[in-house]
Specification:
This protein is α/β, with parallel strands linked by helices and 227 residues long. It is built from ten helices and eight strands. It is globular. The model has no long low-confidence stretch (mean pLDDT 93).
Length: 227
């Protein structure tokens, strides 16, 4: 099972055209290059149709954007853990604000991920939900206020209390759990602010995917985590 090296950067490719198909492979290679040159662990979460090809192309960890709590069988249109493993995936995002689940389904999915030795990163939209999620014992939690996602307004500056409150509540349940933050992270100083608040890394998307020079931005992000 993948070992998380803190601080960590997870890049969610979402479904942008800039991170689709051949462009997704190019972006993955840029992320790998940035990780190798800075020594910072960078994890990427491409679209499902690109997972296998990307996992074959790069050596950095590849996550899925979602995992369904199902067993092999008649579940048309769902995402099977065994298929992710076969594709070379080592972890998964769970309960992203754009793919929310009921708490019971989060629990089942986290348990399934553990069974299949996939790293689970569960997203939450507020400190209370983060605390509830922490009781399910995922490998990572990530706090992301949905109203700031894609705005370029970083949560680490706009609503730092959300991060600090999340850290307080989660660490009352599990002091060792890595906590990431996302939403609006687009500059190196946003990453620095997040780490200064006590997070163990960031979950980013458009700030990297839609950047003119994703490699350069990733390097500045990575370097910001080591200061």
């Amino acid at each position: 099972m993948l070992k998380i090296h803190e601080p960590v950067i997870i890049v969610n490719f979402k479904t942008y055209l800039e991170s689709t198909g051949k462009k997704a492979i190019h972006l993955a290679k840029q992320a790998e290059k940035a990780s190798q040159e800075t020594g910072v662990q960078i994890i990427i979460a491409p679209q499902f149709v690109d997972l296998a090809k990307i996992a074959e192309t790069v050596e950095i960890p590849v996550f899925a954007q979602h995992l369904d709590p199902i067993n092999p069988g008649n579940s048309t249109g769902h995402i099977l853990a065994d298929a992710l493993k076969e594709a070379g995936v080592v972890g998964t995002l769970i309960n992203h604000s754009e793919k929310q689940l009921r708490l019971i389904d989060i629990q089942t999915t986290v348990e399934l991920a553990k069974e299949k030795k996939l790293v689970s990163c569960v997203c939450a939209n507020n400190p209370t939900v983060s605390a509830a999620v922490a009781t399910l014992k995922p490998d990572i939690t990530s706090i992301e206020p949905p109203e700031l996602i894609g705005t370029g307004i970083p949560v680490s500056k706009a609503k730092p209390e959300i991060i600090t409150n999340t850290i307080t509540l989660v660490h009352q349940i599990n002091k060792k759990m890595p906590i990431l933050c996302g939403a609006g992270i687009s500059q190196a100083e946003d990453v620095t602010s997040a780490l200064n608040l006590g997070t163990h890394g960031v979950l980013v998307a458009s700030g990297i995917v839609k950047a003119k020079d994703p490699y350069n931005i990733l390097c500045t992000f990575a370097n910001a985590t080591t200061k």
